[in-house]
Amino acid sequence: MIRAIHFADKSEHRRAKLPGSVHFTEAGDDGVSALWFYCPSGCGRLVRITVGVGFKPHQEGPSWNWNGSTTEPTLHPSVNRIDANWHGWLRNGYWESC
Question: How far apart are the C-alpha atoms of 55 and 23, rounded to whole Å?
Fold first, then answer.
């Protein structure tokens, strides 16, 4: 498991480049936000996914249900990073490999 350290500041997040670290954008009126994270595999890839606060947004492409917590974020369903050969869960603030 690896801790999903939250960075409130986007620039600090980009400078630190810590595997598994996260930055959430401000949720819009529709409750949709973007989650930026460095792949927990350690490959160094910066990834953006669409998340809904308490729901899974209906859109083209994948999206996730986010519990709304920045300190102990949980996503559903699992996150599958095919390009980094990593598949796992973000649960209670920790990335867990499958």
Answer: 19
State which residues form the domain around 90.
2-97
Residues 17/59, Cβ–Cβ less than 8 Å: no
Least Cα distance to 53 among 28, 16, 23 occurs for 28
What predicted TM-score, i.e. pTM, was given to this entire model? 0.93
Please tell me the total count of domains within the chain: 1
Give the C-alpha separation, 12 to 32, whole Å. Answer: 23
Q: Per residue in 38-73, pLDDT tens?
A: 999 999 999 999 999 999 999 888 999 999 999 999
Q: What does each C-alpha distance from 23 to 2, 9, 60, 98 come to in angstroms?
A: 15, 7, 22, 23
**Of how many residues is the chain composed?**
98
